[in-house]
Batch of 4 targets.
Target 1
Amino acid sequence: MKGTDAAFDWNIRAGLPQANVEGRGRFSRNDEGMRVDIAVLEAAQGEMGIRLAAPGAILLPNSGAVEIPGLRLAARPAGNLTVSGRWGPERADIRVALAALPASLVNMFAPEPRLSGTVVGEARITGPTSAPEVNATLNGTGLRAEAPWSRGWPAATLRVEAQRAGNGAVRASAALRMGSMVTLDARAELPQGPGAEAPLSASLSGRPTSSRC
């Protein structure tokens, strides 16, 4: 870091087990609050990675809020992720969107099995910060796992939906389709929210519709 308490340039470079991380930018402070400008941010492992597509900023006004005017991250080999919105001091409105992300990005953290396919999704957090509501969807297409046990399997599609109500209740559902081979549907509800002794209701339905041969 180089500068003063009111404004300084920052630089990060780290080699982690999962990826090499690099970033640089500037921190500044004035009568209205603090600001973190991000000029470069990248995490990479071999041919895969994710980087800041354009310079962005995170604002920390004196109110105690966190404001993200818009951060767009580009994935390698394809796809992008955008984050925008505001958290606090009393209410939240944050949007996260995934566009055409390759499923292989998971292999940055779990090398096996090798994955392929495309994922899109979105999430929105709204309401009071003391009891936020969350709505999220995730869709995967052309999903495959390269492993001996999956040889000959057709590509799969996956849709996941999750909601958190303001009172903490959580509900989620998932639908997996693998050509004419597998049809699975799962649902789960935590009416009192997560907890070691929280009540849980769940169901799984579906069946393999044909053999691998």
Note: The longest strand covers residues 114-128.
Target 2
Amino acid sequence: MPLKAFSAETMKGLATDAAEVIVEAIRDNPGGGERTQVHDVNASLAATPIPV
């Protein structure tokens, strides 16, 4: 995704009251091994939550 398009979509998301900004074009196109990495991080956090 070109930087200009990414920036525009990010700024559009930041202009809302959303607690999280998701750039759909990036979300739907993970890099190599990214799904596994995200799954592993989520599993680790679920097993040992960060104390709050």
Note: The longest helix spans residues 34-47.
Target 3
Amino acid sequence: MRRRLSIARALINQPELLILDEPTTGLDPQIRQNIWQMLRQLQKDGLTTYSRHIIWTRRSVSVAALS
């Protein structure tokens, strides 16, 4: 819950740049996918993101390339 809250708090002022440090660590797989989908949509909308995270799955590799 804290991790999701910190991401929401970071987005509330509609920043142009968002720096995340392992944003989905410790989250269940469904919530993790939801957060990555949200971040991809924000990138399409013009938000620049930088994310450092552990790559666990093959699907995450493609997400890492987007960051």
Note: Residues 2-8+16-66 form a domain with the Rossmann fold fold (CATH 3.40.50.300).
Target 4
Amino acid sequence: MKKWLVASSFLLLLTACGTDDEGTADEPQDDSDQDTVEETEDMDDDEGDDDEGSTVLDENDEGVTVLAEDLETPWNIEENDGTFYITERSTGEIVHVTEDSQESYPVEFSDELYTEIEAGLMGMALAPDFDETNEAFIYYTYGDEDEAFNKVARVAFDEEEGVWTEEDVLLDEIPGFRIHSGGRIAIGPDDLLYVGVGDVDEIHGQEGDTEGAMIAQDEDSYAGSILRMNLDGSVPEGNLEEDSHVYTYGHRNPQGLTWGEDGTMYATEHGPTGHDELNIIEGGNNYGWPVIWGDGEEEGMESPLAHAGKNTWAPSGVDYLDGNLYFTALAGLGVNEYNIETGEITQIVSGFDRVRDVMITDDSMYLLTHNTDGRASGHDNDDRLVQLNLDDVLAGNFQNEDADLKNDEDVESGAEHEEELHDEDSEEDADEDSEEDEEDAE
């Protein structure tokens, strides 16, 4: 990957953040840059009380159409012949949305769905022959808090019964956890299925606290990787090893996958305490986590195409259009535009809502809000699938001048949530130890 692109994109966006954004495991950053945040996605983001500057796009706004409402933790958008298919992480249902209807259909999983915090039904990709087969591929978490895994499965929709049924398992026992499971899947221009998997790190993978996250550097583990497989689940040529689904490794929590018109693959990735990333994905590469992040460099490891520095995007879904990447910002409350040629980043939709996924067509940008995940109070009728007129988006008509990319204070504000998670774990461990002591005493 071009190292000069990393520097140029960083300078264009983040000159106000200072230059001390290099991170390595052996040389941790200054204390001012060591915020203990579980993940940029997990932050409070000042959304708890409908933060100032946040707007609600509705039917009364020019260029806006609300296609679906009252969605529950929606995660992924797919579309075919005018029907949208939306996965709901916590309910395990798939919502079908047309111009004049909205119906939710259950999924019959072969293993029990596990939905704590970030786990559940996440990615979905319609099969190339969906018109004939009604088949799709999904990525979901199963098991329980003691032992969780992720799975890639093929499902089929029965129109008469009104149910999606798991028909085949492409790959199971992928490392899973209540956080950092990745979740995005997509079929590439090579007709292969790509899967983003997080480092499933129990200690939350913070800077200077990376022992658990080192699994992302294990070439034999599927954690912290982007997997690549044939549509029957078999291993294609060109992966890291001939018998492995691992395509790239050294990832923290990749949640967005897309391709440019020249076939270049891009991915979004959640970073620690800011330092969210955009990466060019090339087979066999090591993307560094948790050894390096931000502007850190190490021989044999790839630095990002761009990163957020001390700011945070909490990026998830991403799409490509005319030399630009458009990626969602859960913490940034909108959509960012990244110009691949210049490295410039613009918040093209701002002051909006937590946005989980984005899809672009010839004349529209579709956004999937994500306020019902417990990290924001949201608004009436959340969550929603919103259609924006693409010309209005590109003209900057959905930019809120009062909103800006999240700053250092916003990053630090997430420490409270992280402390709560650690406190909960500590209390549970203490209770378990107490029970064990009582049993020993008896």
Note: The mean pLDDT is 81.
